[in-house]
Amino acid sequence: MSFWIAQFLTGLASAASLFLVASGLSIIFGVTRVVNFAHGAFYMIGAYVAWSLTERLAGAFGWWGGVLLAAAAVAALGALAEILVLRRIYQAPELFQLLATFGLTLIAADLVVMLWGPDELVGRRAPGLTGSIALFDQMIPAWDLFLIVLGPVALGLLWLLFNRTRFGVLVRAATQDREMAAALGVNEKWLFTGVFALGVFLAALAGALQLPRESVNHHMDLRIIVDAFVVVVIGGLGSITGAFIAALLVAQLNAFGILLFPKISLVIIFLVMAAVLAVRPWGLLGRPDVAQRPPAATSARPWRPLGAAGRLAMAALALAAMALPFISGEYLVIAATETLIFAILAVSLHMLLSVAGVASFGHAAFFGLGAYGVALAVKGLGLGMGAALALAPLAGLVGAGLFALAAARLSGVYLAMLTLAFAQILWSIAFQWVEVTGGDNGVLGLWPTGFAAQPAGFYWLTLGVAVLVIGASRVIMFSPFGYGLRGVRDEARRAASIGVRPGLMRWCAFAIAGTGAAVAGALFAFLKGSVFPDTLAIPVSVDSLAMVLLGGVQTTLGPLVGAVAYKALSIWLLSQTQWSKLALGLVILAVVLAFPRGLVGVVNQWRDRWAKRPPGSGEHP
Amino acid sequence: MSAPPLLTATGLARAWGGVRAVDDVSFSVAAGEIVALIGPNGAGKSTCFNLINGQLQPDAGRVLLSGRDITGAGPARAFRAGVGRTFQIAATFASMTVRENVQTALAAGRGQIMRPWGAGRNVARDDAMRLLALSGMAAQAERPAAELAYGDVKRLELAIALAGAPRLLLMDEPTAGMAPADRADLMRTAVAVARKQNIGVLFTEHDMDAVFAHADRILVLDRGRLIASGAPADVRDNAAVRAAYLGDGVLFAATSGPHPGDPKSS
Amino acid sequence: MKFRKTMALAFAALALSGPAATAGEAQLSGEVRIGELNSYSTLPSFTEPYRKGWSLAVEEINATGGVNGKKLTVISRDDGGKPAEALTVANELLSREKADMLVGAFFSNVGLALSDFAKQKKIVYLAAEPLTDAMVWSNGNPYTFRLRASNYMQARMLAEEAAKLPAKRWAVIAPNYEYGQSAVAVFKKLLSEKRPDIEWVAEQWPPQGKIDAGPVAQAIAAAKPDAILNVMFGPDLVKLVREGNARGLFRDRAVVSFLTGEPEYLDPLKDEAPVGWIVTGYPWYDIKTPEHAAFLKAYQARFNDYPRLGSIIGYSAMHAAAAMLRKAGSTDADKLIEAGRGLSLTTPFGPITFRPADHQSTMGAFVGVTGVRDGKGVMMNPAYRKGEDYLPSEAEAAKMRPAGN
């Protein structure tokens, strides 16, 4: 019995820090609608700054003062980031802010190593709370007891802030209805800055309060961010009480789950989320209206298929691309092959994100299914390269089809998070089920054969597939079906009332996008000659999202341009510097600030402005 | 046995929490008949609409279209059965041109919407132009829908709703938010098309000028119940109707300003 | 507007300058080129000392005339910590930088990907850090050599110590991925062979990098084991040690722990370092051999820092690569393989040999007991275990490799 109580208390303590991070994220999302990917970075910086301060400041006051000072300092940093970056792009398409915060995360990851060095840092523990207390003959760390008290206290303080202060009332008004808040005469700019700073403060405080529990290191950001998102989604976006309950639920299920299933930790949080969303599509305490927002991709500029000149240019581009192996070395050919593969991936995500208006944070799932499909076809079924390449996309089709069936009731960020959960569960299987997948050690020896064994041959194969996939995606985009998809995206009610079934259309979009991503994954497996769980991991999802957003989510050629720019840049940076993340982050920020509609979006904007003609009149036969 | 009326609603009921938004409502609409559904804010008009449209499942009651049961069938199936509709807050496809909006609806109506090849912008061009001409939008066919003035958006909606060759047209506050001159124009257009093509129309409206000018028959809802039904002149003189509208402050005086929506029942 | 245009131009320039700026062919004559890649951005705490180690070795090699009369040049790259990115980099090293051989990698999966790549491209790859047994056995190939004492070797060293303990009830805490799983499997098998009387009473498999240490420690303690096998490392280890200490998990219990004696993992813990754990590691402060003393002096003089295990590996790897090139007298892959088989050299850990049968070096590891000295974690009474004593015979090893390799 005493053991169960101790385990319960331990779960409570784990919940507290999870809640602090998640509540900050929830507040920021609720008001600004920014999916703040940098939240984990602020958490990490909070821990680093607190480490520096508590190492220098003496005594109990020094320690606690250091922790609070660190949180306040990082909150100021957050406010600065909001003013310098986010404030300029609130009007940009939804999710574009995600790209900006992703850039901030990349920058932070390298900066902390530059500033604090590569070694993990173990900080001092809180004075007076270093020991343990025997409760029911179990030793409970005093720090845990502090955290157990802190959780509800933080919840109470936040409740008071939001219900008993003018700031809080304004924030709640803005969470429910931005236009209404603006009509109330609220200075939206500073309200947003204040809310962002508050959210960052909570994240940094949570990070600082990790000092007594764990070492400070440069992996903390990514370790916490996904969990924080999942907790926010389980609780319901914008609901602080929901985040509290969700944090408790996740922490307790983990504390007791590992007793029955010692290997469950990695997936439990995603299983909880999937289960909660199956019953409550808007999280425990979330409200439907918070999730219903116009999709990112809706553009006031009607899409046009390429005219004769445009098609000629694309054909010329493809021909020029064919010549690459004759004029460049092998490395450039291989790098170009990889870029093309990611262009296919980006185009497939574009079909989902831009054409159908369905955000996905887990596109890696389908990419990885294609890659593992190749591994299975070659190693398991003994098939050759051609057959494997033909069959592997089916894995993506089946995976996407099943997922879309299961997720039919969800929309918006909730659906996006469920795609993330799907990808993470697949990743966990690939990572942990060593007997079947080889686990972390992957599946080796999947090299292309025949004419494709040479890099140039494989490049041409990839180029051919890419032209096919990109061509097919454009045919689909401008077909009646493509119009149906966009109709559902622009106005699902209207689409339904003219006989277009939104559920079916979205399912088809998933199936198409999943197949396309799996084609890319299958090619990737042969390019690398191996498959690792990395193909299913979050960075692939984030990269593909970044490519589409970078190119311009409201455009038709955006994914192509975005993929080429992003991938070529990251490959090049990897070969140039150890600080490639910092450089890539800076470039992303620069692009985000300079071209809030993406690379192709800005070209369209210029073209419209300079042509000085109504955009609809540029008709092509 | 005579042919059943175009639309028959019997005993429709739907409650939100404890509130009966629609309570035992029965009525019918004949082909080519223009019927107005009116009532004070919160009377249950939009809920009633969504029940007929199939968007909502009623707690009780049935909806028959030409004798065929479409109760809670969902908007897409209701559409295929012959129900077209416009929305209170106009809903068009913002990323398309005006013509493409109508073409999308035509493609859906002709079962081509799942076809992933062929140019969508070449589908039924002529028919699209004909519908746009009907609703007075032909001149703006190539403009982006997102750039239209609100009155034109409503016209476009009408064209979209007609694209499915509906037998029953549901119009939720068709003139809400429009300039006065536009309103009369739009209603005239809609009614003319309906009469010509023998389409039954059920519409809700705050603008009583429009109601009394065009409706063949008026249904009055109050707190979810049908309190009156009949020719405009009869309804105008109905005591219960007058009482219901007193609280709303909108007694049958002709009102000309734009009306806010009906948030509780939308 | 002006700002935007400037940005557009800057971006375009950046995109265009990429290939042009780096496409230049390297100066090939008069030098031997080693392509080196490691997880510098992902795991700097291990790879920064590693970089210092090989830099020192390169300086020494070139100061004494280089290799085969040519200067030894190392082209070093970050591998991004991921197999796929490592392969991109390896391609660059090979086809653009014209590397004569590849050296490096920390993560097992990166190492395996590179080893398969080396086989495909027929280039010699010296794996420095990766521990996985698959590298030289189940996925072994002629082009791959491995320097460091492998997972199996360290498990065997630790199992030997564990067998001497009176403990009968054992519990396991290990990261749930290939490394943790195979370390535990080998350790269990070897210990159970020596001590049929022991039983395994509890296992916890937290995700690597994300241990929820409180519940894990509590769950292990509840099984009341006599001894614990730990395979967690890095930030997970710090959390486990803190929670375990606070909850009395390690009190009156023997703990056997992989890698914990390496300065990379032990030093951050400072005075909170665990006491009395049986560990493998690198007690640089207590190694009195002349080979190590010379290395230590040179390293400290050059970098004004003490060496970590990564320093030893980097230093030894580069010397091993040079020795292989010297013995081969050529950069031809087949000649390098011939030279590598049975190659002997002296490292700071003493003499090592690359076994002809499986290309595994006989570099050993130090086994000791952790303690705290002057507020710092140290390994007490460390003893060097020679690698050859903890490897299966070459005949057995050869059987574990794929046919024809």
Automatic annotation (TrEMBL), chain A:
Gene Ontology molecular function terms on file: branched-chain amino acid transmembrane transporter activity
TM segments?
6-27, 34-51, 63-86, 98-117, 145-162, 190-209, 229-251, 258-279, 312-333, 340-361, 381-406, 413-434, 458-483, 504-527, 581-600
A Pfam family assignment: BPD_transp_2
Q: Which UniProt keywords apply?
A: Amino-acid transport, Cell membrane, Membrane, Transmembrane, Transmembrane helix, Transport
GO CC, alphabetical: plasma membrane
Compartment(s) where it occurs, according to its Swiss-Prot or TrEMBL record:
Cell membrane
Q: What is its main location?
A: membrane
Domain of life, source organism: Bacteria
Family, similarity comment: Belongs to the binding-protein-dependent transport system permease family. LivHM subfamily.
Q: What is the protein named?
A: Branched-chain amino acid transport system permease protein
Species, as recorded: Camelimonas lactis
UniProtKB/TrEMBL annotation, chain B:
Keywords, A to Z?
ATP-binding, Nucleotide-binding, Transport
GO MF terms held by the record: ATP binding; ATP hydrolysis activity; L-isoleucine transmembrane transporter activity; L-phenylalanine transmembrane transporter activity; L-valine transmembrane transporter activity
Which PROSITE patterns does UniProt cross-reference here? ABC_TRANSPORTER_2 (PS50893)
- Alphabetical list of Gene3D superfamilies matching this protein: P-loop containing nucleotide triphosphate hydrolases (3.40.50.300)
Q: Which GO terms of type biological process are on file?
A: D-alanine transmembrane transport; L-alanine transport; L-isoleucine import across plasma membrane; L-valine import across plasma membrane
- What GO CC terms are in its UniProt record? plasma membrane
SUPFAM superfamilies in alphabetical order: P-loop containing nucleoside triphosphate hydrolases
Which chain regions cross the lipid bilayer? none
Pinpoint the ABC transporter domain residues: 7-248
Domain of life, per the record?
Answer: Bacteria
Protein name as it appears in the record = Branched-chain amino acid transport system ATP-binding protein
Q: Which organism is it from?
A: Camelimonas lactis
Automatic annotation (TrEMBL), chain C:
Q: Taking every annotated instance into account, which residue ranges of this chain make up the domain Leucine-binding protein?
A: 32-367
Tell me yes or no: is Plastid among this UniProt entry's keywords.
Answer: no
Which Pfam family, giving just one, matches this sequence?
Answer: Peripla_BP_6
What the record says about family reads: Belongs to the leucine-binding protein family.
Q: Which residues form the signal peptide?
A: 1-23
Q: Which CDD domains match?
A: PBP1_As_SBP-like
Which of UniProt's keywords are assigned here?
Amino-acid transport, Signal, Transport
Question: Would the keyword Transport be found if you checked this record's keyword annotation?
Answer: yes
Please list the GO biological process terms of this entry: amino acid transport
| InterPro entries documented for this protein | BCAA_transport, Leu-bd, Peripla_BP_I
Q: Which organism is it from?
A: Camelimonas lactis
Instruction: State the protein's name.
Output: Branched-chain amino acid transport system substrate-binding protein
